[in-house]
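Hi,

Apologies if this is the wrong queue. I'm a grad student, and the batch job for Glutamyl-tRNA(Gln) amidotransferase subunit A from Acidipropionibacterium virtanenii produced an output file that my downstream script rejects. I'm not sure whether the problem is my script or the file. Here is the sequence I used:
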Amino acid sequence: MADLSTTESLLRADATELVAAMESGDLSSEQITAACLDRIDAVDDRVNAFITVDRDRALAQARGIDARRAAGERLGPLAGAPLAVKDMFCYKGMRTTAASRMLEHWISPYTSTVVQRCIDAGMVILGKTNLDEFAMGSSTETSAFGATRNPWATDRIPGGSGGGSAAALAAFEAPLGLGTDTGGSIRMPAAVTGTVGVKPTYGGTSRYGVIAMASSLDQPGPCGRSVLDTALLHQVIAGHDPMDQTSVPADVPPVVEAARRGDVAGLRIGVVKELSGPGYSAGVLERFNEAVAALTAVGAEVVEVSCPSFEHALAAYYLIQPSEVSSNLARYDAMRYGLRVDDDGHHSAEQVMTASRGAGFGAEAKRRIIIGTYALSSGYYDAYYGSAQKVRTLISRDLGEAWKTCDVLVSPTTPTTAFRIGERADDPLSMYAADLCTIPANMGGIASGSFPAGLSDGLPVGFQVMAPVMRDDRVYQVGAALERELEKDWGAPLLARIPALDESEKEGAR
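Support response: The file is valid. Your script probably expects a header line. Output copied below for reference.
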């Protein structure tokens, strides 16, 4: 068992190590939760990973788990482990903002299925994490509550839209996190923060109680610092939910077993030809090739695969996603809930809606609403939205052909490492290109994950694994093998090499 006798070792421990320490009586959930809350107090002014911290309720939950464990109750494999939740999930009694002024003061009257499953499993909810407004972005810069910063280098972005959850893991504020992934919002932050993030098969996790952005693409998923931790969280949150009409009525894939096994001997791995080349940094491609070589060394069969439609995925996505945004965000009309701008009470409904939406939505949200409304408008629907849906069909066909020769597909998760905050703020097309590798999995509804592959110029690189519908276990199977083989070379998890956030940490590490 790992030595968790110091606060630093406790904070850096995997969730599985923390649970083992709780079961042995060496630690309590209250101690662990208090340490995470103190860590948030100490460093989050530099990271800005959290929008809302739920200190009192988190400590009460932890004490409850400790009492149940002391009474001899049989608890789940993550019972007592703290969790950071992306602020797209409803949680009863806590504000749910989607990082927007539109919902800044909205208190959710109910809890999402995914969060409730975590609570039922004995996990402790630390609070809500930052994101791009309504999950629209690749950098967590569009949040109404300020940009989140990458703990590896605080002048860099932590990815988006779910940069808050990923940054909380990398800053050792929480051992586990929840995210949503519409075009890479779990995987892209995982890649640039040196953490693990998985987008389950569409319908594999419930969207009930998750604020809708693009309903045919959104999918909740787990974030962790190790493959096994992430798989254990996946197992907790996955499964059919009658409250979600898109939920798949099927058994949860054996993700934990796959993460523990990590055997890729004989597995057919397809390197996607279209997800490489110009626009990809040399360091990212070097780490990717090294990861492929590591998998080959332990018995994987590697071939090159062509998915021609992937070249059009980015353009199609940025028509489909804004179109669904236009539809979903139309509900924020200042008539029922959310921000309402009506200074004297004598304005018409149309005037109130216009003023409220103007004040409540940020620039990126407005941009996508306008794009989507235009794409859905009379005379343009077939040319834009209809054509994009045809590309989506071609992507699914290409994936179907790929599965005839491969068990999984792999690529870099992002074309580059984390860019500087503000670097792409005035260049939307450059910002959107950060999702180049991750979008095809959302368009095809398949499972996909990002795993640490090393560093390039001191910044993390992610390795993406894609698997067929409801074969999420293969994602973890490859991720676990990669983690094991690369950590042999590194001598420790990648996050052991993260720079300290402050001078006191540097002193403690000496």
